[in-house]
UniProtKB/TrEMBL annotation:
It comes from Punica granatum (Pomegranate). InterPro entries: Longin-like_dom_sf (IPR011012), TRAPPC (IPR007233). SUPFAM superfamilies: SNARE-like. Keywords: Endoplasmic reticulum, ER-Golgi transport, Golgi apparatus, Transport. Pfam families: Sybindin. GO terms for cellular component: endoplasmic reticulum; Golgi apparatus; TRAPP complex. Part of the multisubunit transport protein particle (TRAPP) complex. GO terms for biological process: endoplasmic reticulum to Golgi vesicle-mediated transport. Signal peptide: none annotated. PANTHER family: TRAFFICKING PROTEIN PARTICLE COMPLEX SUBUNIT, TRAFFICKING PROTEIN PARTICLE COMPLEX SUBUNIT 4. This is Trafficking protein particle complex subunit. It is found in: Endoplasmic reticulum; Golgi apparatus, cis-Golgi network; Golgi apparatus. Belongs to the TRAPP small subunits family. TRAPPC4 subfamily.
Length: 143
């Protein structure tokens, strides 16, 4: 098994702009343009899935399963989307996404210097996010 179950984390604002991107592990590194394209594509697919769903009140795609990866998504009430790309079959990503959302509300939204909908540049968020992901890796891999 690889060292990390999580490949990458994306945070997209309500208008579809990528405001945070972090890679974990070395396989499949993306350049800035690729990460922007993935975020834009996911935002569009998520919005279309809400409109096409036969279920009233559908909040969009929460899990996309592929052969090589899983994509788990959490959308906040404000429309900000958090999604992780991880190894297929990785469990408890919904709980990790909620922890990441809590870190976002605590360290980004409460930061008086942060401008809404703009890229996230917050050292405390980065530090606590790294600790949460590392803690999750330890729980997943038993290391």
């Amino acid at each position: 098994m690889a060292a990390a179950a999580i490949y990458s984390l994306f945070i997209i604002n309500k208008s579809g702009g990528l405001i945070y991107y972090k890679e974990y592990g070395s396989a499949g590194r993306m350049d800035t343009n690729d990460s922007l394209r993935v975020a834009s594509l996911w935002h569009s697919m998520h919005a279309i899935s809400q409109q096409l769903s036969p279920t009233v009140g559908c909040s969009g795609i929460e899990l996309l399963e592929a052969d090589a990866f899983d994509l788990h998504c959490f959308q906040s009430l404000t429309g900000t989307k958090f999604f992780v790309v991880c190894e297929p079959g990785t469990l408890h990503m919904d709980a990790l996404l909620k922890v990441i959302y809590e870190l976002y509300t605590d360290y980004v939204l409460k930061n008086p210097f942060y401008e809404m909908e703009m890229p996230i540049r917050c050292e405390l968020f980065d530090l606590n996010l790294s600790q949460a992901v590392q803690k999750d890796r330890v729980a997943l891999l038993g290391r």
